[in-house]
Design goal:
Elements (H helix, E strand, L loop, with lengths): L2 H12 L21 H15 L5 H6 L3 H12 L1
Helix pairs in contact: 1-2, 1-4
Length: 77
């Protein structure tokens, strides 16, 4: 399973949505469920799932699934 698929499943689980409702463009602006509390839960889930520690700046950059994917890939490089 690739990074984007893992993220899609992770975010859909945190937001309690069907995986089909979450695509690469999904984010804070497109999903009403993605509020500030959900954002913190997504941060924790991403850090745990991928074994990364995100900075405050990176946490602020997590505005969409695609943006999170880029952060994870950057940490994996």
């Amino acid at each position: 399973m690739d990074v984007m698929e893992r993220l899609r499943l992770l975010v859909s689980d945190v937001l309690e949505l069907e995986p089909d409702a979450v695509d690469a463009s999904a984010g804070k602006e497109t999903l009403p469920e993605w509020d500030s509390l959900a954002h913190l839960r997504i941060v924790g889930a991403v850090e745990e799932e991928f074994g990364v520690k995100l900075t405050m700046q990176e946490i602020g950059e997590m505005t969409s699934l695609a943006a999170i994917g880029k952060l994870v890939e950057r940490h994996s490089a």
